[in-house]
Amino acid sequence: MGMTLGEKILCRASNNQKVTAGQIVTANVDLCMSNDGTSHITINMFENQIKHKVIHNPDNTIFIADHFMPSDSVETANIHKIMRDFTNKYQIKFHEGDGVCHQIMIESYVQPGTLVAGADSHTCSYGALGAFGIGVGSTDFLYAMVTGTTWLMVPESIKIKLKGNLKKGVFARDLMLSIIGEIGANGANYKIMEFSGEAVDNFSMNDRIVLCNLAIEAGAKTGLMEPNQVVEDYLKNNRTDYREGVYLKADEDGVYCKELSYNLDEIVPVIARPHCIDDVVPVSECEGIKFHQGFIGSCSNGRIEELRVAASILKGKKVAKDVRLIITPASNKVYLQALKEGLINILSEAGAMIMNPNCSVCWGSCQGVIGENEVLLSTGTRNFKGRCGPASSKVYLSSAATVAASAIRGEICDPREVL
Description:
The protein has 14 helices and 18 strands. By secondary structure, it is α/β, with parallel strands linked by helices. The strands form five sheets. A five-stranded parallel sheet has the order 4-3-2-5-6. The termini are far apart.
């Protein structure tokens, strides 16, 4: 009996011990990542509860300030100071103001075939590179940082076969929201969502990240895709210290608990309505709904591809009078590329507010918080009640194209009407 892609990676991480779903393994962690959402909790435990204060591998431990960037209060300023002091003391890599943690990790650190423990639920994004990214809590992160290992139960895998091509005005975001809408927010609980099929070969790196990033919103332990030429080219173009990763593939006789199939030709622009990410309907069912603020950004949809799409829609036009549009590049690298291409000028001239690279409105903390009874149309990752403002506010989730097109209209509309 063969192994799935996820089992192959965990086998490698467990000293090449063959693993099967349901088995509990102790695995070697290749990278540890924590952000300013919880790093101070980990640091406090390390300083006050760990007797032998040793970081297992400082070179492979990365702390990133992105959730409160820049700091919005004395409290968050102190959290950043704690992180600075700690990383200096133990010679740990620290990024402050460089962008969203997952974008930085994908641009600079994660390698195919590796196991990454991140103190953030969207660590599953790294499956786009063929890496097994798992979100962990502060205690589990501390254990991985100190010992270089973690233990987990090997998840079952769901194979998701994709064929066809997305039509104009339809994006990977629409595809993944459609999948979540069908299987539900609990449809892949503690499972691996392994994306495969002929369509995957045509995906850009951005498409791959979008699908794996949102796997957690279906309850998955992680999302995975076999690394291919797209991944290799991305790494060669983005890493000054390029190293060839471990390009693992699932065995043909790997065992899956479920198999799903989707034809991309049938996917249409969709929207997730408040307050559940699996309440997904075609955008056409929400047309005409007024909203107060639009947001394009986050670890899911803040890359250069989204900025290009938004600029193509907004060029020569203006954001509606009663709408605020906030655009936040996912990293400094994305920001600088957008500047080079003239996208920032186009977006600013249209009336959008361009933020520094960070989690921004998606996190609903330091930028773009909405008010009582206000409505947000967002490319963020979640639309829970109170996610980006008071409990009376509402968050709709869509693609960057839908946000940009709707920002011109002042109400939700199908982006295909504008493109």
